[in-house]
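User: For documentation purposes, I need each entry recorded in a consistent format: the amino acid sequence on its own, followed directly by the corresponding structure tokens. There are two entries in this batch. Please keep commentary to a minimum and don't merge the entries.

Assistant: Recorded as requested. Entry 1:
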Amino acid sequence: MAYSEIVQNLRAAFDSGKTRNVGFREKQLQNLMRMYEENHTEMARALASDLRKHKQEAYVMEIDYLMNDLRSIILNLRDWVQPKKPEKTIVNMMDGVFIYNDPYGVALVIGAWNYPLQLTLAPVAAAIAAGNCVVIKPSEVSPACSKFIANTVPKYLDQDCYRVVEGGVKETTELLQQKFDYIFFTGANRIGKIIHKACSENLTPCTLELGGKSPCYIDSSADIAIATRRILWGKFINAGQTCIAPDYILCSKDIQEQFLKEAKSILKEWYGENPKHSPDLCRIINQQHFKRLSGLLKGANVAIGGDVDSADNYIAPTILTNVKSEDPVMQDEIFGPILPILVVENANDAIKFINARDKPLALYIFSTNEAVRNLIIANTSAGGMCINDVLGHFAVESLPFGGVGPSGMGAYHGKYGFDTFTHKKSCLIKDFNAVGEKLASSRYPPYSDGKLSFLSTVLKKRRSISLKCVPYLFIFGLGVASTLIVNCLRDFSS
């Protein structure tokens, strides 16, 4: 079926009002949950096929994440869809003021290959919850997961409203020529620019979940043993193919030596004498990315690791030292198991280094010094920050996840995902009350100084009255009233 026909059919389904029904949305989300529950073994198998992802990583980072995210959506959907009643000013005290949650229409979700199930299906769930019809485009770079989505989703979701489209660059380019009401893309900055340009042709709103070089600063107040363990986990999980993995470390020379000492011990503990034989290490997704990453090691000063095997798309967990800002490894997001360390003297030097580059998707600070932490938080910009850990902020559904500037635009997770796929439609409701009409009549001609004075007074902005004290005033008033009643009864009885 031609892409234009697919989009046309989905638009007809949306225009019928089918997906606006909250009960229908709940049913589709429950079906999606059933898909996860009935096919989690196949999901883990697909992830192992594409990335040699260990079962624990597959479940913790993708399958269980998807199920928990979906449970939250289902539990909260009825509340999320309700019109919101914002605060009113004195001008609108007699009016109804509402914000309605309108679905955009037909949305396109383009997934990524590094977490091919989570990064495709999590935004799809948010789009369904918001009431949209959805075209689902999994990444062709992770073929087993793409095939799983294409073969399995139609068995559980309504095909009139949700369609899966597979393919590579040619198919995606053709797909982007269609008119969508919203586009959600996860992937590389370079492709994000192409997506954004396509969106601009039809003024289509979009969310771009991109990436960048996420820095990690460590100071002397940190517990280096724990910090090293947390940083290495966040860097080498999924073989470093994580958009918010620590891209490079900024620290003093002394901290670097402590870090390297701990790292050698930890990596041996985790992966043994030869990490290649460990079942817990993922592989690089394909030869193209393997060649790109192995090329970054040429001429680099390898402190730990550095082993590669082209036949197996294997790159050992690697740490580089004596790194300069102009080195190849520091030009673009690494997206692999290579961790450069750059020496800085203090937090101010780290801030200067970070601010001289594109705004990252994540920024990590390892320090127990609150002044240092606040200094970096206040003087840098990033999509998100995590203090004394890595990756953890991604899993907090009450936090919006997204980039800023070159690392992306828009955000999702939890309620923020629902809001991303929802147009907030403002609505003012008035009646024909004679008093209200009399008060508003000053806006009508013929104009006069008196009418202008009245309107200026009414429309003048004033500080809102805080209602926080109302419960206390009520209790105080209740106490006064009770005292008066008791006294009156006492006087009456006497």
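Entry 2:
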Amino acid sequence: MSLTIKKITEPLLLGEGPHWDDRQQALFFVDILEYTIHKYVPATGAHTKTKLDGTVGFIVPVDGTTDQFIIGLGTRFVIIQWDGEEGTPAKIVQELGAVDQDVVPENRLNDGKADPRGRIFAGTMGYENPLGNVLPEKGSLYRVDKTGIQKLCSKIGISNGLAWDLKKKACYYTDSLERKIRRYDYDVDTGEISNLKYIFDLEKNNVSGIPDGMTLDSDGNLWVALFNGSSVIKIDPETGKILQTVPIPALQVTSVTFGGPKFDILFVTSARMNIGGAQEPPCGSTFMVTGLGVTGLPSTNFKY
């Protein structure tokens, strides 16, 4: 099967946070700067969205529901109810808490994902003005579960990609401004992370762009979106070697996740922010990559 890259949505400003919900056979994602959450159903091609009242960093379904989601809204973690229909209002049903309230000018929540036990790991990024100019070391990484919100690390520039290894012993994490990928020892029972080390350095590997969202395949390899790099790279986290590069027809590639009935489709989000020049279509579109010859793993939903 040959590699095929298909545009599945019209351009967004800052498409991000793709999450495949196996039960609904649907992809959920966000447009952070247009304050919208999105649903795409590959079987029908239906693409719906609705708008909230602030930036939306991520969206993850609440386990056992089809219409409730945890989102990062500004600097707040909230549970919303949305029926997935076009323009239907999303109602906040629970406030879980706010973070970085002491940071001025204000941060915002960025990428987030559920760990193997359904806890949310999500982080913040520094104030950005103009676009592309982010205050460094102002963000933090947090964990959200039934016990509350815990800060895991601080002095983060842009909190981004998250993934956990097949053995549930390692957490991979990206602060985009470092242009490196971190690895922590991970305790699946407590959700604690420790012993930071770096497993990949874009600079040393002559890779352009910055690391953004990422996901893991069923072979244990990382797939990393490269913002300003027009591609997704596949990395062996044990050796730090690049195994494959998938070109994407957008400069600002933001995140990736596997989905589809067989988990053999790589969904890729992108942006069209005017950073150093206008980004013409299909920049900002969401893409569907098939024929990679690998499969991903089911996304975990939020459990609390």
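Summary note for entry 2:
The mean pLDDT is 97.
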